[in-house]
Design brief:
Layout (H helix, E strand, L loop, with lengths): L1 H11 L7 E4 L6 H8 L3 E6 L3 H5 L3 H4 L8 E2 L4 H7 L3 E5 L3 H9 L4 E4 L8 H12 L6 H22 L4 E10 L2 E4 L4 H5 L2 E3 L7 E3 L1 H7 L3 E4 L7 H6 L7 H4 L3 E3 L14 H12 L9 H13 L5 H8 L10
Parallel strand pairs: 1-2, 1-4, 2-3, 4-5, 6-8, 6-10, 10-11
Antiparallel strand pairs: 6-7, 7-9
């Protein structure tokens, strides 16, 4: 019932108070999705989201994020004290979800694993969930449609090419964690070096057995391409020898997770993997047009450069 009242308030009268949303637990990407697509008043965010916002263009475009309270390991009393209209969390945050429901609060949980970590379908489900409280149906349709167009465009150009691609999730004291979620790799025309659809710790010997053609580094680590290219331990890898090591772009959020930037990220990866097949594609233009089309925002050249060359501090998970 409360959900219906919230949606009614949004649709019927701009005089109603803003809908207060608290995002907690493992739902790190959601604050940005809410901010760019809705009029939600975000009153709490996960601590792990902060650096991705602080050290990216988001802090310039949405400076209000720098003043929003954040935390981790929240207790039920702390969350109830926020008195949010809607609470949003990761599906794994079952205890707090149940406690909030029992307290009569409106709470919605989201999964990051939809159809075997398919980022497009995960984002679609997330936007449908957000759409229960905010009128974003047209935006949702346009964003998902744009991802499908990017997938089809890339597939039409790559055809039979299948480079071996690796996503480095993190690197900490020689602990090599590879990203096993293969959607970004497969839809940008590559073949994942991992068979399992899960993040996997491997040693240096196993890394050499995989010997990727291309390496992409996520924004969940402060490791940079230069770190790998300068590492004596990695010098024998094909991707290192050919200098095909890239940091994933960082626009609204870290794209290895569900984000609004799936389509331009796929084009980024396709062009880096197969530059000869995408010579006519300007990645700067791709992101600039994306921001105008979906958010009504004209990026400066400095902001475009920061998207394509992210600040490594954005990868530090607090």
């Amino acid at each position: 019932m409360k959900r219906l009242l919230i949606l009614f308030a949004l649709l019927v009268s701009p005089l109603f108070a803003e809908v207060k949303v608290a995002v907690f637990g493992g739902l790190w990407p959601m604050p940005v999705i809410l901010s760019f697509l809705t009029e939600a008043k975000i009153i709490y965010i996960p601590k792990a989201s902060v650096n991705a916002l602080k050290y990216s263009i988001v802090s310039e475009i949405k400076p209000e994020f720098l003043g929003i309270p954040y935390g981790s390991n929240e207790g039920i009393e702390e969350l109830l004290a926020l008195d949010a209209d809607v609470y949003m969390c990761h599906i794994a945050d079952t205890k707090l979800y149940t406690q909030l429901q029992r307290a009569g609060k409106e709470v919605k949980s989201f999964s990051v694993n939809v159809e075997n970590y398919d980022l497009k379908m995960t984002l679609k489900q997330w936007l449908e969930g957000v759409g229960q409280y905010f009128d974003i149906a047209k935006k949702q349709q346009a964003i998902i449609g744009d991802i499908t167009q990017a997938e089809e465009f890339i597939a039409s150009r790559i055809k039979d090419s299948k480079a071996k691609v690796m996503i480095l999730r993190s690197l900490d004291n020689n602990q090599i964690l590879l990203g096993g979620r293969s959607y970004l790799i497969e839809k940008s025309g590559g073949k994942s070096v991992l068979k399992a659809q899960k993040d996997s710790l491997i040693n240096l010997e196993s890394l050499y057995e995989l010997d990727p053609d291309v390496i992409f580094i996520t924004n969940f680590t402060d490791t940079t391409p230069k770190d790998l290219l300068d590492s004596k331990q990695w010098q024998g890898l094909k991707a290192i020898r050919e200098k095909k090591v890239y940091k994933l772009p960082l626009a609204t959020y870290r794209p290895y997770a569900p984000s609004l930037d799936v389509a331009p990220t796929l084009l980024f990866m396709a062009k880096k993997t197969y530059p000869h097949l995408f010579e006519d594609i300007s990645l700067g233009d791709v992101f600039s047009k994306h921001f105008v089309k979906f958010y009504g925002i004209n990026l400066t050249q400095k902001q475009v450069d920061l998207i394509l060359n992210p600040d490594s501090r954005a990868g530090i998970i607090q």
